[in-house]
Amino acid sequence: MSSIAVGPLSLPVAQVLMIVAFAVALFAGAVAGRREQVSVGGPLTDILLWSLVCARIGFVVLYFDHYRDDPLGIIDIRDGGFHLVSGLIGCVAVTAWQLWRHPALRQALGIAVTVGVLVWALPFGLIKLMQVQGQGIPDLTVESREGSERPLASLADGRPMVVNLWASWCPPCVREMPVLEDAQESHGDIAFVFVNQGEGTPTINSFLDEHDLTLRNVVLDRRREVASNTGSQGLPTTLFYNASGQLVTVHHGELSSATLADNLSEFETDKGDNNQ
After folding, report:
1. Is the overall model pTM greater than 0.85, yes or no?
2. What percentage of residues in the chain have a pLDDT greater than 70?
3. How far is it, in rounded angstroms, from Cα 264 to Cα 162?
4. What is the mean pLDDT of residues 36-58?
5. Which member of 23, 66, 209, 248 lies 3.0 to 4.6 Å from 257 by CB, making a disulfide possible if both were Cys?
């Protein structure tokens, strides 16, 4: 499962893990600080927030060309653009600052941060490993807008494939469509497939006309079998499969040109690993 339904919301597993890890870290810090009668809640929150800020800054710097003409996009974190290494560096730096600044909190805060990082990192690494190992393109049939059926995997035609799960009622899906349309035109070596979830041909055609979209490989998944098979609880979800048909990464939520470029770079990494 790549996302978890929480009431009406669907959250990526990574976000759920971060929330759980922060809650566990607060508890561990409270227990460790009870004897010293100190509270680590404030410093721990600062560490989390600054880690996220550093992760965002690192991502924006890495893909600044994509934000050059859209400065407001820098603070629009709906695209999920965060750089893991930058975030970890920020976490270490801010933790060191807090430990130096608050000597009385060193033991409790050190325990809290260590526990929080472990609770997040170990499951996150395991889930990522399980997510991309042995998961191929679902052995499912999708329907064209003309009514013919064909296997989803056949749409790749030997190329890496980007499978976008979407619906016309989904605002983030609407916002990311122009980005995917541009990518489909500029990356002819990659198959982009737009798998509509649960809607009919008239609704899809009306949507494409309304938003003046020219997309290839728009197919129907009336029973939402692709979403169910891949454990994708929310829309939009975009899955990236290499030329061998194996899943290399998943993006939950809206894609910007920067986060799409970041995910497409996984194809190059995967190609390099296979050539070794």
Report:
1. yes
2. 92
3. 9
4. 95
5. 66
